[in-house]
Amino acid sequence: RSPWNNNPSPYVQRFPTLAGAPLLERAESGLGNIWPSCEAHWSHVHEQDESFMDYAEQLAGAPHGSVHVTIGGTGDTGKEAYDNLKELLDPSLLHDLRTKAGLFVKDLYHKGLLTCPEKCEPETPAEECKCTCGGEERELRKRLEDPEQYELFIAGLTDFPDRWELFHSPWASTEELDLLYKKEFIVQVCGAGLLVGEQAESSSPTDTIFWTIHPTIDRLTQWFTLNKAWKDTTWSAENHYWYTSIDKCYGHGPYDVLSWTLPGSTKKFNNLEWTAFSNPGKTGAYALPYVYDSFRWTHCDEEGFDFSDI
């Protein structure tokens, strides 16, 4: 499991809610936990042909990301923390915040603002084995009085490109989320003690549903490469990653060697080579031990999105 997920259960888990919010409830605003649509997939293969890096970054979002978040859930862990914001925030905004609860925790951890116990005994109460932003609540409130510390936390919640527009979008006006409200939100998120279901973090392959989600995206990408090619197939090997250093994030770089091999071979390959092996198009060198039986999305035809027109 990811280090920000202190779930003590030894079993694969799916939670039915996100910080107390029903998973399938759609919010009025654009930040609700919306399922991917035919339009999202159609738009992706039609618009993301400039670079492989942009294609891969955007693929993590609208085309499939919400499925992981929704199926994983957080249960009612964190519900009390978000309930504490009911008197401060508009109900639709609070619902949106609940659906992002697991992402807030992850990003605070990436920023080094949230720390978690490395190990807890199974019988340890959850309250004594949860991630925090350091110290007790009153210490955090005092810390947030320092403008530099406050800005550090706000950056940790809002500077992820195209995602954390939360505090700056037109409908989140300063009247709704003024300084006091933002500080209170930070305090509650830091003390939420959130537990995350497998799908929403690094252990997601242990949940069998993972193996329908990612092949769906793989099939979409193969259809793209059979018909189109990226103008730029490279991605950055430099320290340009959000929140972290490439030296501490091995496995993401183009020349990082991965642990898998091809059938009948003991050789290990880097990410660039695996990208070529998974590309059945003219620019690829397809070598994976499977093929898809079709590249048809008939249910999308009915909605007016014809994937044969690429």
Query: Main sheet?
Result: 2 strands, antiparallel
The unreliable regions are 26-32, 242-246
Gyration radius from CA atoms, angstroms: 21 Å
How much is the average pLDDT?
A: 84
Q: How large is the count of helical segments?
A: 12
Query: Which structural category fits the helices and strands?
Result: mainly alpha
Q: Which word captures the global form?
A: globular
Question: Could you estimate the helical fraction of the residues in percent?
Answer: 25-40%
Q: Which percent band covers the strand fraction?
A: under 5%
- For the biggest β-sheet, the strand order reads 1-2
Number of discrete domains = 2
Order of helices and strands: EEHHHHHHHHHHHH
End-to-end CA span: 39 Å
Give the strand tally.
2
Protein name: Tyrosinase copper-binding domain-containing protein
Task: Give an overview of the whole structure.
The protein has 310 residues and is mostly helical. It folds into 2 domains: 17-199, no CATH class; 208-301, no CATH class. Helices cover 35% and strands 1% of the residues. The chain is built from 12 helices and 2 strands; from the N terminus they run ββαααααααααααα. It has helices spanning 38-47, 52-59, 65-72, 79-83, 91-99, 101-110, 137-143, 147-158, 179-190, 210-227, 271-277, 298-301; strands at 17-18, 21-22. Strands 1-2 form a two-stranded antiparallel ribbon. Strand 1 and strand 2 (21-22) form a beta hairpin. The radius of gyration is 21 Å and the shape is globular. It starts with 16 loop residues before the first strand and ends in a 9-residue tail after the last helix. It comes from Fibrocapsa japonica. This is Tyrosinase copper-binding domain-containing protein.
